[in-house]
Amino acid sequence: ALVSTQSTGIHANHGANIIPYLSEQLSAATNETVRHGGCLGLGLAAMTSNSAEIYELLRNNLYLDEAVTGEAAGLAMGLVMMGSLDEDALSEMIQYAQDTQHEKILRGLSLGIAFVCYGQLEAADPTIDSLSKDKDSVLRMCGMYCVGMAYAGTGNNNAIRRLLHVAVSDVNDDVRRAAVISIGFLLFNAPEQCPNVVSLLAESYNSHVRYGAALALGISCAGSGMKEALTILEPMINDPVNYVRQGALLATAMILVQQNEHLCPKLKHFKDLFAKTMSDKHEDVMVKFGAILSQGIINAGGRNCTISMRSQYGHTNIPSVVGLLVFTHTWFWFPLSHFLCLAFQPTYLVGLNSDLNMPKMKFKSCARPSTYAYPPILEPPKEKEKEKVSTAILSTTAKKLAKGRATPMEVDEEKQDEKKKEEEKKKEEEKKKEEEKKKEEEKKKEEAEKKKDEA
Q1: Which of 53, 142, 218, 290 could, after both became Cys, cross-link 249 (CB 3.0–4.6 A)?
Q2: CB of 297 within 8 A of CB of 320?
Q3: What would the pLDDT profile of 106-151 be if each residue is shown by its tens digit?
Q4: Does pTM top 0.85 for this prediction?
Q5: Phi/psi at 345 (nearest 5 deg)?
């Protein structure tokens, strides 16, 4: 299912050629896992198409009432009808969300309903009001996501006021977290305002609110390298709660993407922190997961991509909004982290001629090379040379030396002279013995010669 979703992500919002194939495979699928991947893939390929046929196919999979398939179908239905505020689709999705017993299906539908309300501003307020008053906490969470999608990028004061009120008053932690995260979607066109709005929430006693504040900063200030946002996030990396530290790491990486040490002097400190957290055997798995994702985000696309919800012409980039909102649901199911790829925007320049070949070109830049320099590549740790350890002195030896009131460096000169004299005497005695032996040998030779002459 993941492979199907990732490969179809290539055709996200451009899937006219692959939609028939995916529809056929989804209709013929008998395996729950294949249906899950088919629904997500079809939803991505037919994003914003408002196709009644595809919507009906996905709705039929939703009505199978299978938890895994239903979650993907609910999300995909919202992608297909994204921004339409279709009354029939909304009523069907909300009604099924209220009836189902599967929480996974409910979460998928909560995202789908939010996508249907995308960009509708005040027209989505009746739906938001009804969802915000629902008894079910997941539907209230859906209401918060609807606010974020309906007013995405507008910075609407009434919408921000509503989200802040829920963030400090709702009895459910998931709803409060969703409300704070949605603030990031409202302010991505004015990222300088976000640190002021969430600064107090980042110090909240509620750990879910702190996590939401971290992600709100990451979403709104993505790729900006904003110092004010990093100042708020840095202490959160040492938070006592594991998932808050994870959110702080993710948000920091999102802010520092496409930055270098010239633009942001603290980049090296945070990169070293990511690497240290990943390799620390005693670190919690949840924090390690955040550090691993952060390392991938900060090096996205071979360091040639940034995270942006705006196109190069200043308009809101719908796939980026989709990718970031679904990415926040990594909280519930970690494979949804792959959706973040939809938010990546290339920052490299490629020139092609009419034959799609790359001609030789030169571009003049008046900025310093360090301004656009790539961060240094990670190097493997170097092995340290083993130092020679000095020989240890046994305790018995130390005691003997202490008794004699001498250390290994202090030598008694008189004893040394006596030893030299004894050695000299021994050498003289050996010489005398050798001389006596020679004399005896000479005598023997002379006697032998005399005997020969006599004979």
Answers
A1: 290
A2: no
A3: 999 999 999 999 999 999 999 999 999 999 999 999 999 999 999 9
A4: no
A5: -120, 130
Quick check: 43 pLDDT over 90?
A: yes
Place of tokens 């996501």: 145
Name 205's Cβ contacts closer than 8 Å, sequence gap at least 6: none
CB 89 within 8 A of CB 81: yes
User: Rounded to whole angstroms, what are the CA distances from 368 to 260, 268, 290, 350, 372?
Assistant: 13, 20, 34, 21, 8
Q: At what angle do helices 242-256 and 267-279 cross, to 10 degrees?
A: 140
Q: What is the DSSP string of 90-109?
A: HHHHHHHHHH---HHHHHHH
DSSP for 251-315, written as a single string: HHHHHHTT--TTT-TTHHHHHHHHHHHHH-TTS-HHHHHHHHHHHHHHTHHHHTEEE-SB-TTSS
Query: For 156-186, how does the pLDDT look when each residue is reduced to its tens digit (9 = 90+)?
Result: 999 999 999 999 999 999 999 999 999 999 9
3-state helix, strand, coil in the chain (%, to 5): 65, 0, 35
Is 410 a residue whose pLDDT tops 70?
Answer: no
Residues linked to residue 344 through DSSP beta bridges, in sequence order:
307
Rounded to whole angstroms, the Cα distance separating 434 from 445 reads 17
DSSP SS3 for 113: helix
Partner residues linked to 207 by β-bridges = none
Q: How many residues does the chain have?
A: 455
What are 178's two structure tokens? 């969703």
Distance of alpha carbon 87 from alpha carbon 69, whole angstroms: 24
Cα–Cα distance list, 335 to 177, 311, 374 (Å): 20, 26, 29
In this predicted structure, what is the pLDDT of residue 302? Answer: 85
